[in-house]
Amino acid sequence: DAGVIQSPRHEVTEMGQEVTLRCKPISGHNSLFWYRQTMMRGLELLIYFNNNVPIDDSGMPEDRFSAKMPNASFSTLKIQPSEPRDSAVYFCASSFWQTEQYFGPGTRLTVT
Amino acid sequence: KQEVTQIPAALSVPEGENLVLNCSFTDSAIYNLQWFRQDPGKGLTSLLLIQSSQREQTSGRLNASLDKSSGRSTLYIAASQPGDSATYLCAVPNRDDKIIFGKGTRLHILP
């Protein structure tokens, strides 16, 4: 397996633009997690899905953020409109229930 | 190459006892270290974040220390409770945007 796949790896956009981050979990995993990493706040859980259903989105910073998982092999995290303070590295991770979470390589987002 | 080690791998203690979890890392050029709690079927919950310029952080019954020069961090849990049972992970971010996790300590608090 190729592991968790995220795209794009780097994204530079202007304030106010819509940003869509993509994640393909490891085949067979039924839990998917979106995290955000910044130097000041460390790694923060944004939202996670079990069997494609959002379970806990309390970490989503505000209404500008939304996440979907239309099927077991794909998820998106959308920011609309983007702001400079959204600049961070966004990680997707997947697991099979209670087992170890496998992280993707991350998407480095820069909003100017 | 950064490596993170956590000792012990598993720990069982009676309720009410204080305990210490250990984390060591090989590359001291870190800008922060983070402790997480993992409960079955859930995302990682951040417990404490220590910046490289700090020596310790406290949150309630939890206290985390950082000694960059020796490559060590400890998580101290006071007056343990059954609800503290979980897997505890420490992690450091790498220079190339990777997060390096230890394998965790599975903690079981005996009622």
Query: First CA to last CA of chain A: what distance?
Result: 36 Å
- Termini distance of chain B? 41 Å
Q: Enumerate how many helices of chain B there are, as a single number.
A: 0
Order of helices and strands of chain A: EEEEEEEEEEE
Q: Strand-and-helix sequence of chain B, N→C?
A: EEEEEEEEEEE
Radius of gyration of chain A: 13 Å
Count all strands of chain B and give the number.
Answer: 11
Measured by DSSP, the beta-strand proportion of chain A falls in over 45%
Q: Estimate the strand proportion of chain B.
A: over 45%
Sheet having the most strands of chain B: 6 strands, mixed
Mean pLDDT of chain A: 92
Overall, the morphology of chain A is: globular
Could you characterize what this model shows?
The complex is a heterodimer of chains A (112) and B (111). Chain A has 112 residues and is mainly beta. Chain A is built from no helices and 11 strands. Chain A has strands spanning 5-7, 10-13, 19-24, 31-38, 42-50, 53-56, 65-71, 74-79, 88-95, 102-103, 107-111. Chain A is globular and about 35 Å long. The mean pLDDT of chain A is 92. Chain B is an all-beta fold. In chain B, a hairpin with a 2-residue loop joins strand 6 (56-59) and strand 7 (62-67). The chains are: A mainly beta (112), B mainly beta (111). Chain A binds chain B through residues 31, 33, 35, 37, 39-45, 48, 50, 55-56, 59, 89, 91, 97-98, 101, 103, 105-106, 108, and chain B through 31-32, 34, 36, 38, 40-46, 49, 51, 91, 93, 97-99.
Walk me through the topology.
The complex is a heterodimer of chains A (112) and B (111).
Chain A: E1 5-7, E2 10-13, E3 19-24, E4 31-38, E5 42-50, E6 53-56, E7 65-71, E8 74-79, E9 88-95, E10 102-103, E11 107-111
Chain B: E1 4-7, E2 10-14, E3 19-25, E4 32-38, E5 44-51, E6 56-59, E7 62-67, E8 72-77, E9 86-93, E10 99-101, E11 105-110
List keywords for this structure.
A: 112 residues, mainly beta, four-stranded antiparallel β-sheet, 11 strands, B: six-stranded mixed β-sheet
